[in-house]
Design a protein that fits this description.
7-stranded parallel beta sheet; Rossmann fold; 10 helices; alpha/beta; 247 residues
Length: 247
């Protein structure tokens, strides 16, 4: 029976991931910030949830103890999903260090503080899968979201190094570079056909984890060729294209 830890479990995508694991009988430990949402999710998923914790994942000082407790309750770990994030407000982060620091903390420092104890625990047991939600925003700095993108880009690089460190021990590390998803985090964004649904993204994440190979994946798949073109575009051209470099 799979033992699954989901951090940031009350987000739209993570709750769908949890539901997919619950339907196949996995034992779940869920961590979320909002106690009401966390309780509702646990009630919906029923007895497959063997433990849960309300936690502010930005409190990096508590990350090791949080992970230790989850592993004790689950009696080991097969899959850990780190799914929390904060888009923030780009223009505010350009003028207010506190706002910029919050975006960097939630999207980079907090995940790293969790990955350190998780990676060490999986290395000690000799198996497991770490899955982390990143973003296509981390592949090139754009004026509309470069603070968020910088944090996600750094997280993606950290995961590259972690993946190479752990692969000899048979531990998989997956980085999911998500394009825009229709969730509460993007509620005030104009939608277009490139937006995915949480259900579709969760399905693809679980399917990728099931293959057990780790690696990086763009979700939905069509973001891979799109971002390849964006990454390799000369800056002199990029800056002239308002739909890419504008606000």
């Amino acid at each position: 029976m799979e033992r699954v830890l989901i951090l940031g479990a009350t987000s739209a995508i993570a709750s769908e991931i949890a539901a997919r694991y619950a339907r196949r009988g996995a034992r779940l430990y869920l961590v979320g910030r909002d106690p009401a949402k966390l309780t509702a999710l646990c009630d919906r998923l029923g007895s497959t949830v063997v433990g849960h914790a309300r936690a502010d994942l930005d409190d990096a000082a508590g990350s090791a103890a949080l992970v230790h407790t989850a592993l004790e309750v689950l009696d080991g770990l097969d899959v850990a999903v780190i799914a929390h994030g904060l888009l923030g407000h780009q223009i505010t982060t350009e003028h207010d260090w506190n706002a910029a620091e919050q975006v960097l903390r939630t999207n980079l420092l907090s995940p790293v503080s969790l990955l350190i104890p998780l990676a060490n625990a999986l290395q000690a047991q000799g198996h497991g899968h770490l899955a982390v939600l990143s973003s296509v925003a981390g592949e090139r700095g754009r004026p509309r979201n470069y603070t968020y993108g910088a944090a996600k880009g750094a997280l993606t690089i950290y995961l590259q190094g972690l993946r190479s460190r752990l692969w000899r021990q048979g531990i998989a590390v997956s980085t999911f570079k998500l394009g825009p998803v229709d969730t509460p985090m993007t509620a005030d964004h104009a939608k277009n056909p490139l937006f995915a649904t949480p259900q579709a993204v969760a399905r693809d994440i679980v399917a990728h984890i099931d293959r057990g190979q780790g690696g990086a994946a763009h979700l939905p798949w069509y973001w891979a060729p799109i971002m390849s073109a964006v990454r390799h575009m000369p800056e002199s051209i990029f800056q002239r294209l308002g739909f890419l470099s504008g606000r």
